[in-house]
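Checklist before submission:
- one chain only
- standard amino acids only
- sequence pasted in full

Submission:
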Amino acid sequence: MAPLDHLAWPFFDERHRAFARELDAWATAHVPHAHGPDVDAECRGLVRALGQGGWLQHAVGERIDTRAICLARETLARHSGLADFAFAMQGLGSGAISLQGTPAQRERYLPRVARGEAIAAFALSEPEAGSDVAAMRCRARIDGDHAVLDGEKTWISNGGIADFYVVFVRDDVPGAPARGSKGLSAYIVDAGTPGFEIAERIDVIAPHPLARLRFTGCRVPLSQRIGAQGEGFKVAMRTLDVFRTSVAAAALGFARRALDEGLQRATTRPMFGGVLADFQLTQAKLAQMALTIDSAALLTYRAAWQRDQGQGVTKEAAMAKLAATEGAQQVIDSAVQLFGGLGVVSEMPVERLYREIRALRIYEGASEVQQLIIGRELLKAPRGGGIPPPPPEGE
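Returned file contents:
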């Protein structure tokens, strides 16, 4: 299966096809497949390279092309999980500014993000508030022309290397009752702001910059607020609606690489006088891997196309992320099985993919949350439907 076969699908125009081919060629020449010990330095280098190559401009700005973002993530993920991470976090970290920032905020941050000169981060999750955003405890009180932030954030990608963080906090209004998800605001906090510190770096099975943040009397000018006070939840959800579909695309990239590796292994591994691919069990496994990938790809690019047409995609994006991430886990597991013992050797391609895919089933909404979103959206739809009754006789 050629990695760019799906570009023939009607979801894409020639501009997208040319973009994907050019990025694939660039990644082949510029993206390392093996990672060194200094993940922070490597991530910074990838951000610079992606910016200098002109690729980050597709993830930044007011006019967001969802299909281009998805094609970029799928292509980069097939080459390197860290390259996909570097691209995605520049988009997610600056997405709120792209979508709802003031002209001054956009001018100050977005050009540098697009050039790879500033690294962005998106700070939503907390120790006791991941999927349940309404449980957020990090607070901001207004003091003159500043907001004063207190609390913690955790699982923050690019934590420790970002130049700025879009931080979501609960508005601390004296005497006002807690307002769940409606009482949130978003602020841009520059690295080095007094009262802001990296409390802890977090190591995970697929290494990338990740940290817990702490805010203690951190004063941020009100000019750094994105949107009006109390609009933080809307800002966060608009941003996630764009990039949730792209998580599905990254999972596709991992799955396609796993299938490529599995095909190579099956057709070259000597086995009982032939090769592994001669066995019907192997052929069935490869067939299921291909079926899973194409099924998820259709859902992914349907959601991306719909968003680019200005349509709502809450249910479609959730379906895409759920199908692609769960499916990719199955595809990669099958590839590891085809490799046998070699499949669990550290830094083998399929072993790296096995570690890379696991987090995608959790971040930007765990699989269980996607199921809840899909069910909720189905229940909101009009009742009825089905096969209409036959017309009366004589009509």
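Reviewer check: Residues 49 and 116 are 7 Å apart (CA to CA).
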